[in-house]
């Protein structure tokens, strides 16, 4: 009885906690919502061969536009619906002062709206993650996607593309003094990339010993790099320059891992819309608009060599 009484006083009943409640550990900042570790590649898949993936449909002859169902739909709506994101500094981001979506991609989209609707402001931007670009085109959530979207054979099987409007190179972003000078130094390290991008596959091929952390948006990569939750970021140099411009302690390092030709995505069921978009891109190459937009948004990348020359398949 004495033992039982002592146990009761000590709180030995089975319903009582055996010790103090565990306290949460706030020492490490949380990862962004949607962050995950990419699965390791199970093998090297053979590269798809579709010839020249950047070859697109030739624009309609200047001054002639036959009846186009997709154009009639856009004109009846009164605005061009464009998919992009607001986490790609320099290309598409929200101006903190005005709330307006700005950047090179945003202005390319406005030039297409200028030609299709007569007014560059008749555009509606819908925010997409990189992984949502192709589904949004295929279910007609958007008319076009202008979102640093690399043209390749795999994507050509799912959507159509314009001609190339910008040529980037995949590289690596790391903290100054980190000792990381390129992909060779990333073995055993954590590298951030946006989910649904070619950057993940390229890094896994070039440096299979790296752990790839995927996040929904490129801005998330900047956050986890600054919080030292990853050692580096890999994507196109143009996007890395936008991240580096926000933090003087970061630098782009190493050689190009892969060329990244950007195209405007279009639903495969709308080939005539591809021709109209290519007509706009031809116009901005010829009349100096491309160079003006480059100087405004991308001058930090150095002097331009000019807009990429178009390749046509017909």
TrEMBL record:
GO terms for biological process: amino acid transport. PANTHER family: ABC TRANSPORTER GLUTAMINE-BINDING PROTEIN GLNH (PTHR30085:SF6), AMINO ACID ABC TRANSPORTER PERMEASE (PTHR30085). Belongs to the bacterial solute-binding protein 3 family. GO terms for cellular component: extracellular region; outer membrane-bounded periplasmic space. InterPro entries: Bact_solute-bind_prot3 (IPR051455), Solute-binding_3/MltF_N (IPR001638). Residues 12-66 are annotated as: Disordered. This is Glutamate ABC transporter substrate-binding protein. The keyword Signal applies. Residues 79-301 form the Solute-binding protein family 3/N-terminal domain. The keyword Heme does not apply. Pfam families: SBP_bac_3. Keywords: Signal, Transport.
């Amino acid at each position: 009885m004495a033992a039982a009484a002592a146990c009761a006083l000590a709180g030995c009943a089975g319903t009582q906690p055996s010790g103090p409640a565990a306290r949460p550990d706030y020492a490490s900042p949380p990862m962004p919502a949607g962050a995950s570790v990419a699965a390791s590649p199970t093998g090297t898949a053979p590269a798809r061969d579709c010839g020249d993936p950047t070859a697109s449909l030739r624009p309609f002859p200047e001054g002639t536009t036959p009846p186009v169902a997709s154009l009639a739909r856009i004109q009846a709506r009164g605005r061009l619906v464009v998919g992009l994101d607001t986490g790609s500094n320099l290309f598409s981001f929200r101006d903190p002062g005005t709330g307006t979506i700005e950047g090179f991609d945003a202005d390319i989209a406005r030039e297409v709206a200028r030609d299709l609707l007569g007014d560059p402001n008749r555009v509606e931007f819908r925010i997409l993650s990189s992984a949502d670009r192709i589904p949004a085109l295929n279910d007609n959530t958007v008319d076009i996607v202008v979102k640093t979207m690399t043209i390749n054979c795999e994507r050509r099987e799912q959507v159509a593309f314009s001609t190339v409007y910008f040529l980037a190179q995949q590289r690596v972003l790391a903290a100054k003094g980190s000792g990381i000078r390129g992909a060779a130094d990333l073995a055993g390290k954590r590298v951030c990339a946006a989910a649904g991008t070619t950057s993940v596959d390229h890094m896994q091929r070039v440096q299979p010993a790296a752990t790839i952390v995927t996040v929904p948006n490129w801005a998330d990569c900047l956050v986890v790099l600054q919080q030292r939750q990853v050692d580096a970021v890999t994507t196109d140099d143009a996007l890395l320059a936008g991240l580096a411009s926000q933090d003087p302690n970061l630098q782009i390092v190493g050689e190009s891992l892969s060329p990244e030709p950007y195209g405007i995505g279009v639903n495969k069921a709308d080939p005539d819309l591809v021709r109209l978009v290519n007509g706009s891109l031809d116009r901005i190459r010829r009349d100096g608009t491309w160079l003006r937009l480059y100087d405004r948004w991308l001058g930090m990348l150095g002097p331009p060599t000019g807009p990429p020359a178009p390749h046509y398949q017909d």
